[in-house]
Amino acid sequence: MAAPAAAARQIPIVCPGHSRPLAEVSYCPETPDGTFLISGCHAKTPMIRNGSTGDWIGTFVGHKGAVWGVALDDTGLLAATASADFSARLWDAVTGNQVHEFVHKHIVKTVHFAADRSKLATAGHEGILRIFDTASPGSPPTEITVFPGGEETPKVSRVISKARWGKDPNTVLTGSADGFVRVWDVRSGEKIRKVQVAGAVMDLEMSWDKKIATVAAGDTVHFFDTGGKRFMAGGSDLWVRVLDFDTGAELECLKGHHGPVRCLRYAPDGKTYATGSEDGTIRLWQSNAPSAAAGAAAGTSGADGTAAR
Q: In this structure, how many other beta carbons lie within 10 angstroms of the beta carbon of residue 185?
């Protein structure tokens, strides 16, 4: 791809602190105390920050391997992390204390809270979607085997990279290395829908209003349902691009990272967005999107940068 035309340079807020490449960044909705941003990296130190200023608040200590997935509940009071140490962990996001360790049998890649924070979804290299009760974290989880024994899928393709609660509070979407997005009814364990995309799923995100699912796979970004106005993508060329949802036209092209851009998310109000890179930093950028569009446009985006280039 040719270098983009010169444009007015935006100077982002740079958030150092991570010692290795970023794996995921995630916001919680606006709370009475503000908006918070949680991040995970290839080291074992997930961090929480002020989502508006980028100021460091704290580090969650306990993992013994890379942290691949992070999440905050809608109140900003609970945090969850997924790690290469074969565990997912539940944290008190105010004190930083560990609430519970969910032991798995292989690398955990993704965690996500239900909207009412009563349940936590986890998944990863086992190819199993698990639903834990956060009020009783020691109870056995509901388990859904995404790749049953009779399905001839190589183990390398059974990795579930992302799990996200859907618009229906009883559904969870999974994206996996075999190039499929699946929708599950967590009450029955039944598969509701299966959609193939262009390559291994590297990121899957729901818009803040739950109307749009954005899926990054291969070198393509897919959208399921409509209503957004813009989305963003990044990748190995170090650029962060904001594109028009309807036409695909490039609206902004920003450079500041010194390594490939691996994770991106819009803030709930749509006024800023966060990008995480292999350079070990998070950058907070200003968005030109009107705040009125935040529910659909700003919240929609978050296609992982690895898929865009």
A: 15
**Sheet with 98-103, edge to edge strand ranges:** 67-72, 78-83, 87-92, 98-103
Radius of gyration of the chain (CA): 18
The residue among 42, 129, 132 whose CA lies nearest residue 78 is: 132
Q: Is the pLDDT of residue 307 over 50?
A: no
Q: What per-residue string of b and e applies to 213-248 under the rule 16 or more CB within 10 Å gives b?
A: bbbbbbeebbbbeeebbbbbbbbeebbbbbbebeee
User: What is the reported pTM?
Assistant: 0.89
Instruction: Name the more confident of 7 and 78.
Output: 78
Tell me the pLDDT tens digit for each residue of 29-71.
999 999 999 999 999 999 999 999 999 999 999 999 999 999 9
All structural domains of the chain: 22-196 (2.130.10.10)
- Tokens 């500041």 label which residue? 256
- Answer whether 34's CB lies under 8 Å from 51's CB: yes
